[in-house]
Amino acid sequence: MFEGYDSQKEKSKSIEMIGLRPHRKRLELFLMVLIGVAWGILLSELMRRSHWRNHKDLVRVKSSPFPTSRRISPYSTAPSTTSTSTSTYTTTTTTSSSPNVLASNLFNETRVLCMVLTSPKTHHSKAIHIQRTWGTRCNKLIFMSSKADKELGTVVLKVREGYSNLWPKTRASLQYVYNHHFRNYDWFLKADDDTYVIMENLRAFLYAYSPSSPVYFGNKFRSNVKEEYMSGGAGYVLSKMALHQLINEGFVNSSICSNRGYGYEDIELGRCLRGVGVVGGDSRDEQGLNRFIPFSPLHWYPDAPKWYRPLLYYTTSNITSDCCSNSAISFHYNNAKEFYVLEYVIYKLRAFGIYRIQDHLPARKSTYSNIETKQIAVNNIVVEKNVTEPKAIIQNLSL
Asked: Are the C-beta atoms of 119 and 145 separated by less than 8 Å?
């Protein structure tokens, strides 16, 4: 009796299983399709993000709006030198035939932050062309303006624009750079948005000097018999120690550094740096020719504009008829097209059969002449965020 009952029960279960089998197959098929769709969406999203990230990285390398403090060198050749010295560099020729070896080495050895002053009206007529040309060779490129610009990644300063207001704008810019980037760089370059800079020549020139020396370089002008200053248009570069003394001894003392809301930045900065013991160095070459040029060679070569000579600090005659050094560092008053013309002539144009390359670096100089260097380990200075700020309110955008 029970055997018949069990047999009937098993038969019922078999019938139920047979009835459920098509439903199970449909359910399994549905789940497989659902899982496949989910994986497809996930993979598609991952591929889209990867493509976008790679695209953004490529744009960043090409245009350099905001490189990191340890930017990838723009020079394709890996550094390779042979020397028995323990120093990273020597003044002997390199064993590699690549012209990029020294430039690539110096990119990491002499770290330069480039601070470009621009304005809303010239973001896309001038500043953007720096981002696409010589700015890519800075270790860090920052644009200072009074208006935000996502493409440039501007740091916004609440200051008035205009030539007569350049001093408070420059002061606010230098204060910002000190507060946010002082520890990561050795030299701090200020340039206008119509200035073109050959960064390789700048680093080669700076190699001889210690960032711990209170010195700055540019094209030295004089406003009267006693005062000298560096031309703002040609650009100038401050050592780490010079920036430290400027901020901590000059900006906190209005009797040394003017805190007025107006003024010409190059003259005011010259007074300020002189007041805190920073020396205006001589950046001329061996022939007495200037490396920082406050005019464009495409406009004035070989004759300088009439306003230029009366302002020069050094009055000794040149031994050549050239206007500018063969190792020039900067040119001013360039329009958009001229940025790319200079880029082409300097980095791409070659004369057949003529191959010239500077294959050695200048000798190191322990300190700059006639300076009592303060015993401060500048690389270990801790920057306080509450250091006296200029009157301008600083906002950090897109850093």
From this structure: yes
Q: Using an 8 Å Cβ cutoff, are 159 and 169 in contact? A: yes
> Collapsing DSSP states into helix, strand and coil, what is residue 259?
coil
Beta bridge partners of 141: 114
> Quick one: 97 exposed, middle or buried, by C-beta within 10 A (0-12, 13-18, 19+)?
exposed
CA atoms within 13 A of residue 123's CA, in its CB half-sphere: 19
d(CA 81, CA 78): 10
Report the distance separating Cα 374 and Cα 359, nearest Å: 34
Indicate the DSSP class of residue 87: S
Question: Which residues, 6 or more positions from 265, have their beta carbon under 8 angstroms from its beta carbon?
Answer: 166, 167, 169, 170, 171, 232
Angle, nearest 10°, between helix axes 265-275 and 166-181? 50
Residue 22 identity: P
Q: Do 257 and 272 touch, CB atoms closer than 8 A?
A: yes
Tokens of 171: 């002061």
For the chain, 399 residues long, give each residue's pLDDT as a single digit of tens: 545 555 565 555 555 555 556 667 777 777 887 887 777 777 777 766 655 444 444 444 344 333 333 455 676 543 333 333 333 333 333 333 355 777 888 888 899 999 999 999 999 999 999 999 999 999 999 999 999 999 999 999 988 888 878 888 999 999 999 999 999 999 999 999 999 999 999 999 999 999 999 999 998 888 765 678 788 888 999 999 999 999 999 999 988 988 887 778 888 999 999 999 999 999 888 888 889 988 888 887 777 777 767 677 677 665 566 778 889 999 999 999 999 999 999 999 888 887 766 667 778 876 554 444 444 455 555 555 444 443 343 333 333
Contact between 278 and 242 under an 8 Å Cβ cutoff? The reply is yes
